[in-house]
Amino acid sequence: MTDVDQSLDLDHQHLLDRDCTTLSRHVLQQLQSFSAEAQDLSALMNRIALAAKLIARRLTRAGLVEDALGFTGRTNVQGESVKKMDVFANQVFISVFEQSGLVCRLASEEMEKPYYIPENCPIGRYTLLYDPIDGSSNVDINLNVGSIFAVRRQEGEDLDGSAKDLLQNGRKQIAAGYVLYGPSTMLVYSIGKGVHAFTLDPSLGEFILSSENIRIPDHGPVYSVNEGNFWQWDDPIRDYIRYVHRHEGYTARYSGALVGDVHRILFQGGVFLYPGTVKKPEGKLRLLYESAPLAFLIEQAGGRASTGTQDILDVIPDKVHTRTPLVIGSKEDVTLVESFIQERDREQKEREILTSQP
Ligand code: P6P
User: Fold this and answer.
1) Which of 72, 151, 173, 316 is the most exposed place for a label (fewest CB within 10 A)?
2) Residue 345 has what pLDDT?
3) CB atoms < 10 A from the CB of 317, how many?
4) How far, in Å, from the CA of 287 to the mean position of ligand 1?
């Protein structure tokens, strides 16, 4: 009887090892620890992955499922019309954390106040902040949408339910990432040790590591902005757009879904902008569960995220649904946008000095 060759050849071994690198295992590898806290964070990320799978499943069949598409007829705390998929996805994140003992509070774009899971609160020391479906205007036309998430440690008992400890800057995030529901479903995350992407293998029902230690190029060709707002912007933003129109090497890409646009820039380089407008000087995007998680991720990948005048991760919100302008992407491109704002401020100061002189 010949001995069965016990060792797979290297290629097969590598592929098998890759398929075994699930999200929960990767978190433990990142932490290089099997402590209770490491296990909790690994389990928490695994619950987020479960939420992503449940949402992806509904999205892929939305056109066939009764009552999956369209509007609910209600408006959310943002004053935006709520899609049925928004409500479904919001509830999915709540459901996957019930009976988990991990997360006491969930703060969502779709809920005016944070949702508490009482059975978790005595031991659950984490808070999930999330946008369950980002870019929901794309859902009914089968274009890419995303989910954005951030994890923070709860500070204090929050006995009055005010969740005041959430009103701190983005450097309090311990994990952040997004799910991109596109041709494949990808989960991109960071726990402060680089940025890593997992692709859902439907045949396994697992997110498998597909890109590790992603680095955003220092500069890229893409600028991503809704130019329909051009005449509502401040002059420096208009001047930046005129600059990229006049210089070779730039290309415009804008999908109407923040996650897809930032994902493209993470891999190809460039800059996404959602500046303040005359109607919304503070901008449209929400800090705690859109800009700050993406800023955490992009900085981990070697990029930058700014309001145009301040690092996003330094902004302290005055309420859970605080909005900020957002300029995010390759560090050279974000810095170039900021330079137009700095130039205007410098000229303004000079004019004030001149006019104040006798
Ligand atoms: P506009 C989607 O509603 C969203 O919050 C982001 O995903 C997206 O980048 C932005 O708003 C699009 O806004 O005003 O260009 O349609």
Assistant:
1) 316
2) 92
3) 18
4) 14
Indicate which atom in ligand 1 lies nearest the CA of residue 131. Answer: 5
Instruction: Please indicate whether residue 328, judged by its CB atom, sits closer than 6 Å to ligand 1.
Output: no
Ligand 1 mean position, distance from CA 285 (Å)? 8
Compute the distance between CA of residue 295 and CA of residue 177 in angstroms, rounded to an integer. Answer: 10
| Backbone phi, psi, residue 306, to 5° | -140, 160
Using one digit for the tens of pLDDT, what is the confidence trace for 49-86?
A: 999 999 999 999 988 887 888 888 888 887 888 889 99
- Domains of the chain in start order, with CATH, are 3-211 (3.30.540.10), 222-356 (3.40.190.80)
Lookup: tokens for 18: 């890759």
What is the CB neighbour count within 10 angstroms for residue 72?
14
Q: With a cut of 80, say whether residue 260 has pLDDT above it.
A: yes
For residue 37, give both structure tokens.
């806290």
pLDDT in tens, 267-277: 999 999 999 98
**Range 78-87, long-range pairs (CB < 8 A, 24+ positions):** 78/109, 78/286, 78/321, 82/110, 83/133, 83/136, 83/139, 83/140, 85/58, 85/59, 85/133, 85/136, 85/139, 85/145, 86/110, 86/132, 86/133, 86/136
Question: Of 271, 307, 312, nearest to 288 (Cα)?
Answer: 312
128 by Cβ neighbours in 10 Å (0-12 / 13-18 / 19+) ranks as buried
How many residues would you count in the chain?
358
Burial 23-37 (b: 16+ CB within 10 A, else e): bbebbbebbeeeeee
Mean pLDDT of 143-160: 94
Q: Cβ(165)–Cβ(158) under 8 Å?
A: yes
